[in-house]
Amino acid sequence: MKKNQNLIELRHIKKCYDGNTIVTEDFNLEIKKGEFVTFLGPSGCGKTTILRMIGGFELPTSGEILLNGEDISVLPPNKRPINTVFQKYALFPHLNVYDNVAFGLKLKKIPKREQDEKVRHALEIVDLEGFEKRSIQTLSGGQQQRIAIARAIVNEPELLLLDEPLSALDYKMRKEMQLELKNMHKKLGITFIFVTHDQEEALTMSDKIVVMADGEIQQVGTPEEIYNEPSNLFVADFIGESNIFKGRMMDKRKASFCGAVFDCVDDYEVGTIVDAVIRPEDIEITTSGRGQIQGKILSSDFKGTFYIVLVRSGKNEIEIHSLKNYQPDTVVELYIAPDLIHLIPYDSSINHYEGVITAYSEEKGVHVEFTDFGWDVKVEQIFPNGKLINKNGQPITIEGLKVEASFQPSIAQLSDDAQAGVVQGRIISFLYVGDHYRYTVRSKSEEDYVVDDEYLWNQEDFVSILIPKEKVTYRVWDGKNKKL
């Protein structure tokens, strides 16, 4: 029988505050022994909350946290073989380095000789041997961070949690400590769980990255998988720089976007709407005649090791990372190799909302109430042949029937006039998709609406959404959940 290699298992974890504020729901994750795992995501995505639940500083509302197969969900922190390094190192300023590092050992009443050996070994690992008598106040930020790590590892935990421990360091020190932590992980052989919102940090240090947004896992994979094969547009946009273009499958392994047809490695059914993701460093500027599209240089800015070159091709603005400088208005060709084009099928679950028919009149048609709005719809838009009958030709009692409405992001429009649209909310995220922006607007009821708009709005802008109801697709279901 194969032994379970998972150190930590999170099963159906739900966390609520104040009874109704849901931070995360049905969160599931497995972490193997000895892995360096990074929780990566924007502020407020729930990554620190998950870390604190693993450490015992927060309790899950429901679900299980298993350590070596044993449920530790309600165990206090001091009963778990887990140590945490916090963003603020929480060192004791009145104690010297030795006493800070030995603090946990003293609580366990470890003999003095054994304490000395363990402290010496821990300081050796963090390259601060000989610092035992130094005052905490005399140490630099980087040295204090190492002492915090030494204090954690001296207890020989099975699991080390690191909650953005490098955020207070300057850029150069962060770089050095990233390598130090990676080397420490190799030396110690224990499991690290690291929390950060810094994509480069995650890519540099991790064996496995867990990308999170809104309390949900977006993708789990190696740094190479996350970067080269993002599972959705959030990951593609959040990890590094990406060019994203709306396209369509034209033939086997052929996709159309940017006004041209490209050979691809990914393959989907002909006609499938896709988003093509191309990294800026994967686009070649050429004048050899082999480029798939032509464009004009808009700008070329030096960034130390490369130039960020912006090219306009039709309505699309394309970012390229090039070792060569180009003059504005230069006409160039762009070549993209098939294996450097990553296709993501359009998310068909976007903009699907359930409503209920509450009334009917010959003059207005049927009235449908959704969570955020209600409107009158012509009978023929909802019912087959425009008649209030089912598939068997029998009359339908329509009040109370469930309606599913869906629409493409491209048919909607944003407005700053609160009275103009049927839905109001705040922009929680957006990304640039070739020749327009794709916005996610969250209403007061926590419903999300995705809208394509050519104009640039800011995150947190309060907007209303204009949705032409005649362009919305409807489906009606009977009481047995069958389509009429």
Question: How would you characterize this protein structure?
Answer:
With 484 residues, the protein is of the alpha+beta class. Helices cover 18% and strands 38% of the residues. The protein contains 10 helices and 30 strands. It has helices at 47-55, 97-101, 103-107, 112-125, 141-153, 171-188, 199-205, 223-228, 233-238, 379-382, and strands at 6-17, 21-32, 36-40, 62-67, 70-71, 82-85, 159-163, 191-196, 208-213, 216-221, 243-251, 254-257, 260-263, 273-278, 284-286, 293-302, 307-313, 316-322, 331-335, 342-345, 352-361, 365-369, 374-377, 402-406, 413-415, 423-433, 436-443, 448-453, 462-466, 473-477. α6 (171-188) links the parallel β7 and β8. The longest helix has 18 residues, at 171-188. It is globular, with a radius of gyration of 28 Å. The relative contact order is 0.08.
List keywords for this structure.
484 residues; alpha+beta; six-stranded mixed β-sheet; 18% helix; 38% strand
Q: Main sheet, how many strands, which sense, barrel? A: 6 strands, mixed
- Bin the strand percentage: 35-45%
Helix content: 10-25%
Total DSSP helices:
10
Mean pLDDT: 89
Q: What is the terminal-to-terminal distance?
A: 51 Å
Evaluate the radius of gyration: 28 Å
Total beta strand runs: 30
Q: If strands are numbered along the chain, what order do they take across the biggest sheet?
A: 6-7-8-3-9-10
Q: Globular, elongated, flat, extended or rod-shaped: what is the shape? A: globular
SS-based class: alpha+beta
